[in-house]
## 1
Amino acid sequence: MTEQHDVVVVGSANADLVVRVERWPAPGHTVPGSDLAVVPGGKGANQAVAAARLGGRVAFVGRVGDDPYGTLLRGSLERAGVALDALVTTPGPSGTALITVGPEGESSIIVSPGANGRVTPDDIDRAAGVVGAARVVSLQLEIPMPAVRRAAETAAAAGARVVLNPSPAGPVPLAVLALCDPLVVNEHEAAYLLDGAVGDPAAGAAALRALGPRSAVITLGAAGAVTADATGTARIPAPRVRAVDTTGAGDAFTAALCLRLARGDDLAAAARFAVRAGAAAVRREGAQPSFPTAAELP
Ligand code: ATP
């Protein structure tokens, strides 16, 4: 029998190539930068690592390339204790994100999908045992939509709960939205899906739910999150912390939410834990290195 995982993440793994600059190059220009840092990232891998660090039994479904970055990405997932039976090494480059961080800490990012762009519905069918045995299947939009859709359908048909974080913001077919429980978005993604500014967050979460998902969550940065499900809406304040680096806060939040839903919490209770995980992640630099352990969130 396939082992049941709390959370199965079907998604992306990227090598983040990070350089700091004092000023941005104009097109055709060259500027000096800091030493290059190569760190494991990608929304899927980040969420898998975050859920595992919180003590979850987690598996990852996706693809990495047969380049050195593929080895790096596989290694970081393995060290976190994520099951990798359904992680395929595919010929060609791994996903990479070219990240330039400016003097004020703002970043500009180019994502090259690489192996993430080669995840297919057939991959999901081959991993159907893992996906179907999950309590919660976590999805994002850094792999092609046909694979996202097949994963959502496979999970739902097997009785697993589907959580979709539609990031980077993009269109989501109604058939996929209808399977989400919840849809998890930040304010920018909410505005994209609602076709305009969110306004009152609770009304926004309810409006998102009206698009089809069984439940919805909007994360609000330092202001926490708001949830909407059949029982109504709930505002969940975030703990006050000194923010050092918000990279990965959304991934820490979503991973923690998925884990607590898998353990049987209702949506508002899971979100109350998730805001603590998100807040912990902004207190440290980076994405994966900033994710808290279960011991840090008693
Ligand atoms: P990112 O893209 O930086 O990973 P995001 O835009 O997807 O994040 P946010 O809404 O900014 O998502 O943050 C997710 C969660 O992290 C929030 O709901 C909150 O719980 C926590 N968080 C983020 N920023 C702060 C902050 N400054 N103080 C406390 N908690 C924070």
## 2
Amino acid sequence: AGEILKKPSWIRVKAASHNSRFDEIKQILREHRLHTVCEEASCPNIGECFGRGTATFMIMGDKCTRRCPFCDVGHGRPDRLDPDEPANLARTIAALKLSYVVITSVDRDDLRDGGAAHFVDCIRAVREQSPATRIEVLVPDFRGRLDRALEILEAAPPDVMNHNLETVPRLYREARPGSDYAHSLKLLAEFGRRVPGVPTKSGLMVGLGETDDEILQTMRDLRAHGVGMLTIGQYLAPSNSHLPVRRYVHPDTFEMFGREAAAMGFSHAAVGALVRSSYHADQQAHAAGVA
Ligand code: SF4
Ligand code: SF4
């Protein structure tokens, strides 16, 4: 405990490939003053994702009402919702000619609907301007307002509904204060029941102190709640004041998780050290028959 583990050789950040598409996307993002999670989180996959026409956008500001100690997003009093954000986002995505976008947000426990209506406004605006662009949303848990939020989302559903469990239930108290494992599973199951044509997806991090068996059990829980798409990646501590990395999972173990995921019936699982929730989201959607 307290010791900082040495990064193993397989955690090597890929050099961003600076193809022309990548530079073009960066330039358009600056012009539209929009920020992507890809850039803010210095995601190791940025060259690849931008090159393929995929990006992840964060809506509803950059201050979260929760404080998960693994997460690098700021917290505090959230910003007022920007009524121009859906239109601005839609214009930017159209200018970027993206084929697949992920729209995500901080947790907005301050809003009566948790931000569900703003998500729907963004989905509608993007669809109007870019009808061919596939939209995945990565939503917060809407705790305390789940029915209201689901009813709103049902009216203009995304192409893929993603909500990350992040970790195993035993570690929720430490890693996800304010969140609840059973509630998050319920969100995924309920959405799937209400909108059966839209696949649900979830993501886990390894390295927070969980065991392999706990990961496998969590995967089974996801399947039992109808979730068909999965991501598992290595947790990397954003700084020394975040939760420490308790283990680096070996590539062989990731391979085992991938095999087990297929055996459990996930339609697609992106599993590996550098996998992030939105990594290869476009390919995943392909596998699920969406894109
Ligand atoms: Fe962006 Fe996600 Fe790709 Fe990282 S994996 S560059 S956050 S789309
Ligand atoms: Fe980060 Fe999400 Fe936790 Fe907020 S709820 S601190 S954005 S992981």
